[in-house]
What does this fold into?
Amino acid sequence: MPRWKALPEELDPQVREFAGQLRRLVDRSGLSVAALADATGYSKTSWERYLNGRLLPPQRAVVALAEATGAQPAHLTTLWELAERAWSRDEMRQDVTMEAISVAQARAALGWDADQTAAEPPAKSTRFTKGTKAAAAPGTTPLPSVPQQRRTDSPSAADFPGWAAAAGPSPAAPAAQAPARRTGRGRTLMIAAGAAGAALLGGAAFLLFNPGSGTAKKAAAPRPAAAPSTKQVLPAGVRCTGAGCVGKDPEAMGCGGAHAITPSRGRAGRAVIEVRYSKICHTAWARISRAAPGDQATLSAGGHSATARAERNGAAYTSMVEVTGDPAKVAACGTTMAGVKGCSRPVPATPAGAPSEARP
It folds into this structure.
């Protein structure tokens, strides 16, 4: 008894050759269908369909079979691609055939003669003339007639009732006057009248929804005179002021030296903590001196804060923060490496004529 069933007669030659090649590989390997299913991961039922030509296997199943039988996957996938194209062509032809059968069944259910319908010329070649009806083909059910639409060369009041109401009576054409001849000039006049009516309707709608648009616009009020510029003129060497100085070095921006005072001072252990304030720049910063390396000073004002750590020389200063109020109320606090804390307190202002400090 042969191991394989005969392949279906309707198979494409490419599919038939591919199925025969699969069978030869399985026979040469000595694998049963059940063993092939275990080796490839595809079910026994699927392989029976693949090997009997009832279903085309997926490419991954073909590669798995090649690995299980020791064949070259590249050669086998080439044959699979040819079989897949042929299988797709057969499916397309089958779909077209089934569609034709469905159309024939639908026409038969409607009482149409399929042969007569197929013999009829295309619909676009049928010509109709005014006042005549096309004769129904023998053996077919005539369709109900559709009343022909009245054809005119120009629009009339019946077509657009709003024209007469919008445009008003025309002195040149009384209501009882006979319709004008259909000439090129008449068509032009009718089109112009239609455009004028549409314009009148548009204008009325615009005035209805925009009642203030028809009045004359009021004269524009004179613009107020520009306020004199209040931009502060900075002294030579000063490069910022206010918010423009936040986070910047007071010495580099020219805000220290003669432009700065010390409104408060305090101690944190042996370290001296000071608040330096520049009236020109409207900023303040903290300065720490006589400190051990690592001691720090912190200043907060105007929503900004800055911290500096003393270096080997025992001194440092923070970047600037903006100060808009009394600088005496701005305090700086220091913390030593030993954990000692202290904050600055207001000190009397420097007397007039006293020498200013050169450092920031």
In short: Confidence is low (pLDDT under 50) at residues 122-137, 139-155, 170-183, 213-219. The first strand starts at residue 260 and ends at 268. The chain has eight helices and ten strands.
